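note to self: dont lose this again. the chain is below, predicted strucutre after it. 82 aa total, dont forget to put it in the shared folder this time
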Amino acid sequence: MSKEGLRNRLLGTWQLVSSVIRFEDGEFRDQLGYDPSGFLIYTAEGGWLTGVAAASSAEPIWEGRCQRGPARTAETAAGLGL
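---
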């Protein structure tokens, strides 16, 4: 698959379903708890926005980048209804 084809397949909104880490001893652990929530958004213009919250957290952590520099991510996420 070409870079352009892969890029186009990744554009859009993705929902986090788990965050598992594997340790050297082979054990797997849920990094953010059993039922984390989160989204990752890639735009055609090269921007991105992510919000992740552990299962026990009421507030997600937002991070992002847009063409004009770092996004005001909490405000952007609220505007998107996330």
